[in-house]
Amino acid sequence: MSISVPFPRTQPPGFELIGDEPVFDPERHLQLEEPNEIIMLADLGYTRAEIEGTATPVACSSPFRMLSNEGAEVMLETARRLRVFATPAGERIERVVRGGCYRSTWLRDLALSPDVTAHMSKIYGIDVAPHAMPLHLGHLNFEPSSIEKSIDKWHHDTLPLDYVMAVTDPAEVAGGRFEYFLGTKDEAAAFAARGETPPVDRRVAPEFAGPGYTIALHGNMVVHRAGEMFELCERISMVNGYVATDTTIDGQSRSRDLLHVDPPEVLFAEWAKFAAWRSQGRLATLVDSLDFTRDTDAVIRQLEHAIDDVQQAVVEMRNGLQPLEHYE
Question: How many domains, in total, are found in the chain?
Answer without folding.
Answer: 1
